[in-house]
Amino acid sequence: MSIPSEPAPAPAHYADLVATLPRLDGRTVAVTGCTSGTGRVLARTCGELGARIVAVNRPSARADAAAEDLRAAGIEVVSVDGDLGSFAAVRAAGERLAAACPDGLDVLANNAGVMALPDEATVDGFDVQMQTNHLSHFLLTSLAWPLLRGAADARGEARVVNHTSGARRGAPLQAAYLRPEGGHLGGDDFPGAAKWRRYQQSKLANLLFTYALEQRMSAADAERGIRILCAHPGPTNSGLQAKTAAAGGTRLLDRMILRRTLRVAQSVEDGTLGILRASVEPTARSGEFYGPAGRGLPGPAVLLPPERDPDAEALLWDESLAATGITEYFPG
Predict the structure, then answer these.
(1) Which of 104, 107, 126 is nearest to 117 (CA)?
(2) I want to staple 132 with a disulfide (CB 3.0 to 4.6 A). Which of 77, 84, 122, 330 is the partner?
(3) How far apart are CA 229 and CA 145, in angstroms?
(4) pLDDT digits over 79-116, tens only?
(5) 210-237 confidence digits (pLDDT tens)
(6) CA-to-CA distance for 304 and 285, rounded, in angstroms?
(7) How far, in Å, CA of 31 to CA of 41, rounded?
(8) Measured in whole angstroms, how far is the alpha carbon of residue 185 from the centre of its chain?
(9) What's the pLDDT band for 201 if we cut at 50, 70, 90?
(10) pTM of the model
(11) 131-to-8, 16, 249 alpha-carbon distances in Å
């Protein structure tokens, strides 16, 4: 049984917001997961504003095609192979990113994500959703930190932007989801709620990582102008729902969740506005959170109140360090 298709809605807020943004000439923006969805719109928009784009994607024909589409639009783009399902691949991507950014990295947009996949372990033993959505971004951000410092020293600021979702709400963070328990966390048995819980935990991790990173970076890095922000897209017709269905998300619960989202979903362009504002808007400050204000409703991206949980942030940080094997998070 398949998820019923819904026509893609027309953008309602995208053009007006983009018209307010500054040029990005001389800046480099790295976006993970930009073959489709919000990542592709973010990369295209930043490129149209003059930025040089570093596209961090798992090697595929889709990644090659997305990069060629950007080049065809007159955008300078460098492709970096980066499979977020493997820490070894992320470390290799970190080396390629450094080679691609000799003048520093102005924005690292940790956008890539997967949703409601079967209960499987990555090659490192972690839940495929948690490693793809959070742990590999946690590692990549550490690897990119010297590049962010370089951009901030040269041009006055640099940003890390994480992408969460409305699914972050629900159960508090649990350490088991951050440990090498992939394949043993549940998600394929009736009614299939456990895979959505694993997704919820990964998206909660994205937000907690933002606050934990912002709190733990040094005062010197903050004075350099490094800013840490987060965004969520609201219900968005991004193509992620179809990928979930193709991966086996056809149980009654899956269909209910996906159908409900698509019924109210906004365009992928409007869903990109939160991460776009966090990445580009000059007045955005470190620690801020952008996205539609309504719970489970579409709308323009606005500044949202913080959602702090110091105990969960500390748990997230400590477990993520242990998972990735990082001993010095802010190298140099």
Answers:
(1) 126
(2) 84
(3) 15
(4) 999 999 999 999 999 999 999 999 999 999 999 999 99
(5) 999 999 999 999 999 999 999 999 999 7
(6) 12
(7) 10
(8) 23
(9) very high
(10) 0.93
(11) 30, 35, 20
* Residue-range domain boundaries for the chain: 14-114+123-180+196-232+266-323
| Backbone phi, psi, residue 104, to 5° | 95, 170
Strands of 52-57's sheet in order across? 77-81, 52-57, 28-32, 107-110, 158-163, 226-231, 289-291, 302-304
Task: Report the candidate in 30, 28, 91, 92 with the shortest Cα–Cα distance to residue 56.
Answer: 30
Distances (CA, A) of 285 to 84, 202, 231, 303: 28, 24, 13, 10
User: Domain 14-114+123-180+196-232+266-323 belongs to what architecture?
Assistant: 3-Layer(aba) Sandwich (3.40)
173 DSSP assignment: P
Q: What is the three-class DSSP state of 301? A: coil
Interatomic CA distance for residues 266 and 296, integer angstroms: 11
DSSP 135: I
What's the number of CA atoms in the CB half-sphere (13 Å) around residue 193?
Answer: 3
